[in-house]
From TrEMBL:
UniProt keyword Transcription regulation, yes or no: yes
Gene Ontology molecular function: DNA-binding transcription factor activity; sequence-specific DNA binding
Keywords in alphabetical order: DNA-binding, Transcription, Transcription regulation
SUPFAM superfamilies assigned to the protein according to its UniProt record, in alphabetical order: Periplasmic binding protein-like II (SSF53850), Winged helix' DNA-binding domain (SSF46785)
Protein known as: HTH lysR-type domain-containing protein
Residues in HTH lysR-type domain copies: 2-59
Keyword Disulfide bond (UniProt): no
Family recorded in the similarity comment: Belongs to the LysR transcriptional regulatory family.
Gene Ontology biological process: DNA-templated transcription
Length: 304
């Protein structure tokens, strides 16, 4: 009989493509993943992966095992969610995931009174550019700038995030204000990379600053804000982050950057768990007074 623990390691390598990435996902060491996969292949008498310098790809035997492993995973996760749903107390652990700027600037500070009120609950706040999976129990509660696609996820829009275009005073002193009629020719940009999903501003920047050169890319807004404040280039940031970053000046482009909805998601099987319900209700209420700062209505005057 197949061991579910072996299949967990197999699935992690199949999904992430390298032993190091699988080890991070499983929270074990890379040699442990390698040993478990090798032992699993020996027990089956088949090679499940094709090894190469770039990583691991499924072999024909691995492809045949994959579907069975995923079905076993869904059954195991359903059992875990059912067990969690029987927990009647405001105790236990919660894993919450969000982008790094939202975790650091918004959710982290909001959690202090919640944790003081519920000392039996511990929260792991995972700041990650990747979208962790609720169906695979990579997180209990997730915040995203786009709607969830899984039918098993209960979701609601909890805020709107406004964006602005910024530059440091030092950068503007050296380069001058960008000429949007000339599509910011002669200017530099600090942009998000294409890796995080649903990046709000990339297409907009390509339209309003088509002649600017991309000086730097990053997969996180905090790093983007830091480079913008250091004078590397123009940056498009959430207003809540950009307005609070010392040294950045809000500019007035001809069209406003796109805003995004902030969605909160939980798995339907765990939606009724008391600690999950308590944190969802608390964060939803606590975001209310911040909605004006997350989505400021006023725009700067031209030439400011």
């Amino acid at each position: 009989m197949l061991d579910w623990d072996d299949l967990r390691y197999f699935l992690a390598v199949a999904r992430h493509g390298t032993l190091s990435a699988a080890a991070r996902a499983l929270k074990v060491t890379q040699p442990t993943v390698g040993r478990r996969v090798d032992a699993f292949e020996r027990r089956l008498g088949a090679k499940l992966f094709r090894r190469s310098p770039s990583g691991f790809a499924l072999s024909a035997a691995g492809e045949s095992v994959l579907g069975h492993a995923e079905r076993m995973e869904q059954g195991a996760l359903a059992a875990e969610r059912a067990a969690a749903g029987r927990d009647a107390g405001l105790t236990g652990h919660l894993r919450v995931t969000a982008s790094e700027w939202l975790a650091a600037r918004v959710l982290g500070p909001l959690l202090a009174p919640f944790l003081a009120r519920h000392p039996g609950i511990s929260v792991e706040l995972v700041a990650d550019a990747r979208w962790l999976s609720l169906p695979r129990r990579e997180a209990d509660i997730a915040f995203r700038p786009a709607a969830f696609e899984h039918r098993e996820v209960f979701q609601r829009e909890v805020a709107r995030i406004g964006f602005g275009l910024y530059a440091s005073e030092a950068y503007l002193a050296g380069r001058g204000l960008p000429d949007f009629d000339r599509q910011c020719e002669g200017h530099a940009l600090v942009t998000m990379s294409d890796d995080p999903p649903a990046v709000a501003d990339l297409a907009w920047l390509r339209a309003v600053a088509a002649k600017a050169r991309v000086a730097a890319r990053t997969n996180g807004r905090e790093a983007q804000a830091t480079m913008g404040a250091a004078g590397v280039g123009l940056v498009c940031l959430p207003r809540y982050l950009g307005d609070a970053t010392a040294g950045l000046r809000l500019l007035s482009p001809p069209s406003p950057p796109p805003e995004r909805a902030l969605w909160l998601g939980v798995h339907r099987d765990t939606r009724g768990v008391p600690r999950v319900k308590a944190l969802v209700a608390f964060v939803t209420d606590a975001l209310g007074p911040l909605r004006g700062a997350l989505r400021p209505g006023a725009r700067p005057r031209p030439g400011r």
